[in-house]
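Suppose a colleague, Dr. K., hands you the sequence of a protein chain of 169 amino acids and asks what its three-dimensional shape might be. Before reaching for any lab equipment, you can write down a predicted structure in token form. Begin with the sequence itself:
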Amino acid sequence: MTDTAHSDRSEDGETRRDFLYLAAGAVGAVGAGIAVWPIIDSMNPSAEVLALATTEVDLSPIEEGQRVTVTWRGSPVFIEHRTEQQIAAARDVVLEELPDPQADEDRVQRPEWLVMVGVCTHLGCIPLGQNPGQTRGEFGGWFCPCHGSVFDTSGRIREGPAPRNLTTR
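The predicted structure, expressed as tokens, is then:
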């Protein structure tokens, strides 16, 4: 009688029921993964959004002293090929006098190229100064006509209500 009571057990003490529990759990885990994957995958950005995430610009036709505007993620990006005089003016500023102190060297990767998002940090207006003949303000940079913010040749706020410099990188 002792043999028939334990006939379902293997030599190491496992039963067929243990195997069935493990097999059912594995199938359930795989099924849950298959059911949840489409929900997780739908949270990834679409191809259209990924395409807007990067913009490549050929800088070779931009002459020294010229400013161009490109669009990135629906916002204007100001690119300026700065002259030696503009670079010197941007570096000669006393940082303690700035509302948002930031050295010119920290705002650019290469001194001759200034690349920044062309949106005023006050209320999201687009400053003037990209096109020839537009008002650039007394510091030679950009001027936001909405509330009078003035930015220098490094895109740093010099006057007006804008709380921060124009965004770089």
